[in-house]
Design brief:
The complex is a heterodimer of chains A (61) and B (141). Chain A contains 3 helices and 2 strands, in the order αββαα. With 61 residues, chain A is of the alpha+beta class. In chain B, strands 3-2-1-4-5 form a 5-stranded parallel beta sheet. The chains are: A alpha+beta (61), B alpha/beta (141).
């Protein structure tokens, strides 16, 4: 299993929860790519940040 | 070694796979390979958490924070000295007629002190700060 997942001594492991399951995934370039766009096609986080920034700009010093 | 400071806009672009996401992924991969260091201000970390939770719920927030933590991105806490330096950065930019949120001044502060430190953002409001800090702007589109 270690070999097929590319796990070597020192490999970091990402621990996440999926419902009632605990998921262990080796940290790799593949996981970085898998995380990129994890919310693709859903309401934009960046757009929400922009909205919040506009509100914060009204808090003048 | 180059230290990239990722702000919340950069991380959110990566999670949404919007413009600049590939560049952020590249920085994270370089960080994992030990070729550079990528760090995040605790305030921007909290902002990523809050916005993700607001839009997609707590489980999604937990998933994202676990993943980013597993990538080994140091989250730099705001202490008294940093808070004062961030306040001075905000005031300096105010004098240039550019108001940035205080939370963003913490990100800029992390990238000061060395030209090897690069602040990575998608927010062009930081333009005036590029006199004092190296800034890499992610593409607008």
């Amino acid at each position: 299993m270690r070999a097929s997942l590319g796990i070597k001594p020192g490999t970091r492991i990402a621990v996440t929860q999926d419902g009632s399951r605990i998921v262990l995934e080796p940290v790799s370039e593949e996981l970085v790519d898998k995380t990129r766009g994890i919310f693709r096609g859903k309401p934009s986080l960046s757009a929400e940040l922009k909205r919040q920034r506009q509100k914060q700009k009204k808090d003048k010093w | 070694m180059v230290r990239y400071v990722l702000d919340s806009s950069a991380i959110l672009r990566y999670l949404d796979d919007e413009a600049g996401a590939a560049r952020v992924a590249e920085i994270i991969k370089s960080h994992l390979a030990g070729e550079c260091e990528a760090a995040v201000s605790a305030l921007h970390w909290g902002e990523v958490a809050g916005i993700t939770c607001k839009l997609h719920g707590r489980p999604a927030m937990d998933l994202v924070l676990s993943r980013l933590s597993a990538f080994g991105l140091p989250v730099i806490a705001a202490d008294a000295d940093r808070a004062v330096r961030a306040a001075l950065i905000k005031l300096k930019l105010l004098k240039l007629k550019r108001d940035i949120p205080y939370v963003d001044a913490f990100g800029i502060e992390l990238a000061t002190g060395s030209r090897d430190h690069v602040f990575v953002t998608a927010d062009f409001d930081f333009k005036p700060a590029s006199r004092d800090v190296t800034i890499e702007f992610l593409p607008a589109k």
